Amino acid sequence: MDIRFSGVSKIFYPDITALEDVYLEIPKGEFVYLVGPTGSGKTTLLRCITREVAPTRGQITVGSFSLRKISRVDLSIFRRDIGIIFQDFCLLPHLNVFENVAFVLEVLGAPPREVKERTGEILDQVNLWRRRFLYPPQLSGGEQQRVAVARAIVNAPSVLLADEPTGNLDLHTAEEIMQLIISINALGTTVIMATHNQYLVDAYRQRVIGIRSGRIVRDEKRGRYNLDGEL
Amino acid sequence: MGSFKYTFRDAARLVIRHWGLSLLTVLTSMSVFYLIGASVLLVLNTRHIVNIMEGELTIQAFLAPETSADVVAKKAAALPHVTKIAIITPEIALGRLQVRVEPRMPNVLGFLADDNPLPWSIEVSVDRADGVKGVAEALSVIEGVADVVYAVELAQKLANFSRFAGQFSVVMLLVAITASAVVLFNTIRISVYSKEEEIGIMLMVGATPTFVAMPFVIQGIILGGMGSLGASVLLSLSYNGIMARLKDLLPFLPFLERGMLVAKLGVILVGSGATLSLIASLLAVEAFTRRAMKPL
Ligand SMILES: Nc1ncnc2c1ncn2[C@@H]1O[C@H](COP(=O)(O)OP(=O)(O)O)[C@@H](O)[C@H]1O
Ligand SMILES: [Mg+2]
């Protein structure tokens, strides 16, 4: 699923410009860092892709879906193909690790046997199989984020959106998560990751899109976090 | 199949998790449906009694001497609400009198047989208690009618009560159904908000709004269904008891029998209880998912 923004602006009521005239093309399978200061519009851009935010102007298409006019049922179907990870994990505290992941497959109507098998596979992949009966508050930050990654990819989405996924983690743990995300990308999933982590961006060189006050200020094929002293 | 299991497991969890609220909701809908059922039984019974009594609503028009009963009967037959006319000859009238008096005073009327002093009369049957007064007035102005006698008080009271019972039950029905719908709606809404976070994640990973709504709708149907079922059982028990007492108290009134009537009413109550809760819970959860899926 290619992602295309054409002339997208978002003005929040009454007059906060979060995105301004954004043109963007992200082909299937690409890895993109979204960098920029706090309040520059990174989260808003990601939320436009999930249609939690509707642009004030402009068009967004993801694969064959045009997001401007999409019915509620189509939106549900579309979202099954998008995985999301947040800075603060957003796990359900009253469900254990296994249930937090299996839950996604259950609500998408997968048969119980498939739920079990697939959840087991994914927990193996993120190295949490032995922790499957623990609850989120019993886990370390890195483990919680791995559960969140597992939940985001259990349905094998075409696109993975990560909004500062390492923001609450120490460097070592952040790198662990990063390697996990890289490995998911290697299997063909498009990844868009908003981040403040200079180390990761410079260590794992990928396309970098710089954003400031809602505008795209740079877009480099194999970029770095800083550009000649400028953020 | 996986989603069925999920839906029912989650509905059951919702009911148990909010057990206090569940209990309150069941009790409320139970009282509401009990009231509805009781007022339906009241109306059916008064209708039934009124119907039977109306079958016996008659007016006696006594004729002046030398009047042709046939002519008066023809004129009376043309009046509205008149269903049947019988001509009572002095002989029939005497016969009826004898039947009433004879058992206590045998042969006391024997001497009247030769020289019958009783007048001719016609007996007019009226279809509705409402119509009795009008027919009686119309009869009294027909030429040759000397006097008109009818049970005005009873007929009128009966008609009034029947009308009142009907209106009362309609009002009762509306109030009760609204109250019950509001309570169910609120309970489901509280459940929905208690799972706000979960619903948010469900919608983000692509669960359809209908799927999200399912456990809450089932929860609503369980609560409303249990309430109306409880009401039906209670109604059946109390109707039995009340009927037994009323029959002792008012043996002459033809009340409806129990059995099939209450069973049918129970089925209707449970059916409408389930339907009502389906609608109320669907509204409660739909309003939520609609808002949750609306983009900023
Ligand atoms: N729901 C909202 N209502 C109003 N303003 C918002 C909303 N969400 C974000 N904004 C504003 O839009 C701008 C961009 O925010 P955001 O996309 O969160 O930036 P970032 O993720 O880069 O820190 C900020 O000025 C923020 O205050
Ligand atoms: Mg942000």
What order do the helices and strands come in, and which of them pair?
The complex is a heterodimer of chains A (231) and B (296).
Chain A: E1 3-12, E2 16-26, E3 31-35, H1 42-49, E4 57-62, E5 65-66, H2 72-79, E6 82-86, H3 97-107, H4 112-125, H5 141-153, E7 159-163, H6 171-186, E8 190-194, H7 198-203, E9 207-212, E10 215-220
Parallel strand pairs in A: 3-8, 3-9, 6-7, 7-8
Antiparallel strand pairs in A: 1-2, 1-4, 4-5, 9-10
Helix pairs in contact in A: 3-4, 3-5, 4-5, 5-6
Chain B: H1 2-17, H2 19-54, E1 58-63, H3 69-77, E2 82-88, H4 90-101, E3 121-126, H5 132-140, E4 145-150, H6 152-194, H7 196-205, H8 209-249, H9 260-293
Antiparallel strand pairs in B: 1-3, 1-4, 2-3
The complex binds adenosine-5'-diphosphate and magnesium ion (MG).
Which percent range fits the helix content of chain A? 25-40%
Order the strands across the largest sheet of chain B as they lie in space. Answer: 2-3-1-4
Radius of gyration of chain B: 31 Å
* Residue windows where pLDDT falls under 50 for at least 5 positions of chain B: none
**Helix content class of chain B:** over 70%
Beta fraction of chain B: 5-15%
Total number of helices of chain A: 7
Shape of chain B: elongated
Structure description:
The complex is a heterodimer of chains A (231) and B (296). By secondary structure, chain A is α/β, with parallel strands linked by helices. Chain A has a domain at 1-81 and 160-166 and 191-224: Rossmann fold. Chain A has helices at residues 42-49, 72-79, 97-107, 112-125, 141-153, 171-186, 198-203; strands spanning 3-12, 16-26, 31-35, 57-62, 65-66, 82-86, 159-163, 190-194, 207-212, 215-220. A 6-stranded mixed β-sheet of chain A has the order 6-7-8-3-9-10, sandwiched between helices. A 4-stranded antiparallel β-sheet of chain A has the order 2-1-4-5, with helices on one face. In chain A, strand 9 (207-212) and strand 10 (215-220) form a beta hairpin. In chain A, helix 3 runs parallel beside helix 5 and helix 5 packs parallel to helix 6 (171-186). Chain A is globular and about 45 Å long. The two termini of chain A are 30 Å apart. The mean pLDDT of chain A is 89. Chain B is an alpha+beta fold and 296 residues long. Chain B folds into 2 domains: 2-53 and 160-293, no CATH class; 58-150, 2-Layer Sandwich (Alpha-Beta Plaits), CATH 3.30.70. In chain B, 71% of the residues lie in helices and 8% in strands. Chain B has 9 helices and 4 strands, in the order ααβαβαβαβαααα. Chain B has helices at 2-17, 19-54, 69-77, 90-101, 132-140, 152-194, 196-205, 209-249, 260-293, and strands at 58-63, 82-88, 121-126, 145-150. In chain B, strands 2-3-1-4 form a 4-stranded antiparallel β-sheet. In chain B, helix 2 packs across helix 9 and helix 8 runs antiparallel to helix 9. The longest helix of chain B has 43 residues, at 152-194. The radius of gyration of chain B is 31 Å and the shape is elongated. The complex binds adenosine-5'-diphosphate and magnesium ion (MG). Residues 42-43, 163 of chain A line the site of magnesium ion.
